[in-house]
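Technical annex, item 7. During the second reporting period the consortium partners agreed on a shared format for inverse folding records so that results from different sites could be compared directly. Each record opens with the tokenized structure and is followed by the designed sequence. A conforming record, contributed by the partner at site C, is shown below for reference.
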């Protein structure tokens, strides 16, 4: 990934088309703001911890992603360097806010576990070989600055019954701004509505409160990537993350 676009600076693979990032400079993309500390240092390449983090960044993301990856048909290809081939459509699914009875919390559910220690323990259990101290730092950043995590916690605290859903509509944008893909969500964009009826639209993200059903996240939804890659898409404009 060492081919740099001379207009926008995007890094691409050598087989990728020249205009796929910014149409040869015709599309002006919003600049990416600096991450807050300690995430900024983790992205710096300047410390041993940072280098270990960047080498394992996919695993760290797996610790924190709120959705899971799926495809119509995944075929494993064994060998010295095991890979897999995907047939059909790729999709992301999201579970309930809280785990079903007698099951361990995973993905999004870990954010609502009892305390900080319990969350770090759970994350270190299902993704092994990571620096516990780094996991704890990222977890604190996401709890303090990630607006999706914040909104989910607010939605969960607003209701006492188990019979509800949290719905995120796809189209809400801040007043006076154009819709911009690839941006992290901001406070005004989230409409995490708590509903009890079955009335939801096909383009909504619908999160059940308390069961073991997985629902598909529409790939057209503007938070599709923010839910799967929280370490990159964690920014909240209020705090310049
Ligand atoms: Zn470009």
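Designed sequence (site C submission):
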């Amino acid at each position: 990934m060492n081919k740099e676009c001379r207009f926008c600076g995007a890094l691409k693979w050598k087989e990728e088309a020249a205009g796929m990032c910014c149409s040869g400079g015709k599309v002006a993309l919003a600049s990416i703001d600096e991450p807050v500390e300690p995430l900024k240092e983790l992205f710096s390449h300047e410390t041993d911890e940072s280098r270990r983090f960047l080498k394992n960044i996919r695993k760290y993301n797996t610790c924190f992603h709120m959705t899971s990856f799926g495809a119509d048909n995944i075929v494993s290809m064994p060998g010295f360097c095991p890979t897999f081939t995907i047939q059909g459509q790729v999709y992301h699914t999201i579970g309930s806010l809280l785990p079903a009875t007698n099951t361990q919390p995973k993905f999004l559910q870990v954010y609502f576990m009892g305390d900080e220690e319990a969350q770090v323990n759970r994350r270190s259990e299902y993704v092994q070989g990571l620096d516990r101290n780094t996991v704890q730092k990222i977890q604190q950043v996401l709890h303090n600055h990630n607006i999706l995590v914040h909104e989910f916690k607010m939605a969960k605290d607003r209701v006492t019954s188990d019979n509800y859903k949290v719905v995120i509509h796809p189209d809400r944008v801040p007043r006076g701004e154009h819709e911009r893909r690839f941006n992290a969500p901001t406070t005004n964009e989230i409409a995490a509505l708590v509903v009890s009826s079955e009335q939801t639209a096909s383009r909504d993200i619908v999160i059940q409160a308390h069961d073991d059903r997985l629902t598909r996240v529409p790939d057209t939804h503007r938070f599709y990537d923010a839910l799967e890659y929280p370490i990159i898409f964690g920014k909240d404009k209020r705090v310049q993350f």
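The first strand starts at residue 3 and ends at 4. The two ends are 26 Å apart (CA to CA). All partners now use this format for quarterly exchanges.
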